[in-house]
Amino acid sequence: MLDKVKEIYQEIEQFEVQSREQLEQFRLRYVGRKGVVAELFEGLKQVPQEDRRAVGQELNSLKDFAQQRFKEYSTSLENGDGQEEASAVDLTLPVAPGPYGALHPLNIVLRQVITVFERIGFSVADGPEIESDWYNFGALNFPDNHPARDMQDTFFVEKKSAGAPSDMLLRTHTSNVQIRLMEHRKPPIRSIMPGRVYRNEAISARAHCMFHQVEGLYVDRNVGFRDLKDTLYHFVKEMFAKDVKIRFRPSYFPFTEPSAEIDISCQICHGKGCNICKHTGWVEIAGSGMVDPNVLKNCGIDPEEFTGFAFGMGVERITQLRYGVNDLRLYTENDVRFLRQFQGA
């Protein structure tokens, strides 16, 4: 019996436990109720009476030794929990693909617009969305009685005093950034101004009270209308198909003279006529013109020495033509079904 106890001692000392499976094997063989140590205790009945006490002490020592080793192995594996599982992971395998988000379609197009103009030397400028009447209207040559100054068209957000007209408003265009640039920077100035603008309009499939614009400004010596046309021709060819048709229509804006609106052939119906182009085959994408001399004077720039052009376009309209969006309200409704269509765009 004592020889068998010594043999089990040696087995326990030589047994290596490096995983949960080996720990379980150790428990079943040496600590469990049906293990070899428990069998030795069962055989204690057959030991002569005079030797039983000495053998029983050796068995108790063996049992304590096995349990102590089991606790040590258990603690060691707990402190290094997960190592054996991690070692079994093949790190050369490709990562399982997870769900990807998508940029908002307006952000996609806005980035593309910015990229086109940055490549031809335009910087990006930003300004406040809550603006004073001077930067939004006055400096841009809007007369005092212009309809845009009415509350029916503009969101006014602050009053100077009770009963007095408001002087602060939500900007109706990003032209306010043009004024701030010309006030604080000497020509040459070549920059675009992307951002949100606000107008007091009823929300429908064709209009919204909040939308996005990208305006551009170039002021330098000897800047002419030809420079404006070349710039916008380049932009349209880069954003749309190379065979897109472009036309300039005479128009009027208080801050440019002469002024023109830019139309392109409808990218939805390709000129055949649809509800987007009102069955004309043409869609307006921007307004433009040569900066009015009064605007240059208001910003401290000599119109006898410098000239410039400006333009402004709606990001929603550009996005509509690129992706065939037929309802402007989809941009702000956060419908996941709509947004998922632009994954990978």
Features of the shown structure:
2 domains; 345 residues; BirA Bifunctional Protein, domain 2; 3-stranded antiparallel beta sheet; 12 helices
Write the layout of secondary structure elements.
Blueprint: H1 2-14, H2 20-31, H3 36-43, H4 49-79, H5 83-87, H6 105-118, E1 123-124, E2 130-132, H7 133-136, E3 156-159, E4 166-170, H8 175-184, E5 189-198, E6 210-220, H9 225-239, E7 246-253, E8 256-265, E9 282-291, H10 293-298, E10 307-314, H11 315-323, H12 336-339
Parallel strand pairs: 1-5
Antiparallel strand pairs: 2-4, 3-4, 5-6, 6-10, 7-8, 8-9, 9-10
Estimate nothing, just give the exact number of structural domains.
2
Tell me the fraction of residues in β-strands, as a range.
15-25%
Helix content: 25-40%
CATH class of the largest domain: Alpha Beta
Give the structural class. Answer: alpha+beta
Radius of gyration, CA atoms, in whole angstroms: 40 Å
Number of helices, where a helix is a run of at least 4 consecutive DSSP H or I residues: 12
Q: What is the terminal-to-terminal distance? A: 79 Å
How do the helices and strands follow one another from N- to C-terminus? HHHHHHEEHEEHEEHEEEHEHH
Number of E-type strands: 10
Please tell me what the overall shape is. rod-shaped
What CATH architecture label of the largest domain applies? 2-Layer Sandwich
Report the major sheet. 7 strands, mixed
Which parts are unreliable, with pLDDT below 50 for 5 consecutive residues or more? Answer: none
Query: Largest beta sheet: what is the strand line-up?
Result: 1-5-6-10-9-8-7
Q: Can you say what the CATH homologous superfamily of the largest domain is?
A: Bira Bifunctional Protein, Domain 2
Mean of residue pLDDT values: 86
* CATH topology annotation of the largest domain: BirA Bifunctional Protein, domain 2
